[in-house]
Amino acid sequence: MDDNNIKYTDRGEFVVRVSYAGDNLKSIPVNVFFNEDGDGIVQLCCYEIAGFKGDKIANGLIACNALNQKYRWAKFYLDSDNDVRAELDACISRGTTGEECANLVRRVVSIVDKSYPTIMKALGIKIDYIFLAVCLLTDGLFADISTKKHLYIGCNLISFMLK
User: Are residues 97 and 72 in the same domain?
Assistant: First the structure.
């Protein structure tokens, strides 16, 4: 990844973390796990994309199933805390590890970013995107500076809820 000018953070001997911004998500951190045996197997994980609790868990499972049908490169599931997780597993060649990992990170980021509206819809959060200049109000919400309309916040996303 150094050869591809990708900034990353070492998270352990065989783990690095890369973070990208998407169109739908402000931050998409990807943990890249390299197999300790050096056999060319790599796993990319995006944790806690969104959380499903109580009566929304079934909606989360249905959304993950729909996303698994749509995207063959990544798998979506609810982890033990009922948070959406996306993973991608691959075999890579030693001579092209950096280039292949860079491509895989971009691929999983793109898939997670495109999947986010489906996940938010399953949570019951209406998403109609209009990104606006915002300012922080004292009540912790955001507002459009020009119209003073409130924006609703969900899982790293500032989205304007249209009526």
Answer: yes
**3-40 tens-digit pLDDT:** 555 566 666 778 989 988 899 998 999 999 998 887 78
CA distances from 117 to 23, 25, 84, 114, 155 (A): 11, 10, 13, 7, 11
What is the C-alpha to C-alpha distance for residues 130 and 13, in angstroms, rounded to an integer? 41
* Positive or negative torsion for Cα 99, 102, 108, 109: negative
pLDDT in tens, 104-160: 999 999 999 999 999 999 998 865 543 333 333 333 444 444 443 344 443 333 333
Paired strand residues for 45: 31, 87
Q: pTM for the complete prediction?
A: 0.72
Tokens 């606006």, located at residue: 132
Q: Among positive and negative, which fits the CA dihedral 99, 100, 102, 107?
A: positive
Are residues 92 and 143 both part of a single domain?
no
Number of domains in the chain: 2
Domain that includes residue 158, residue range = 126-163
Among 132, 127, 114, smallest CA distance to 28 is for 114
Structure tokens given for 57:
């868990």
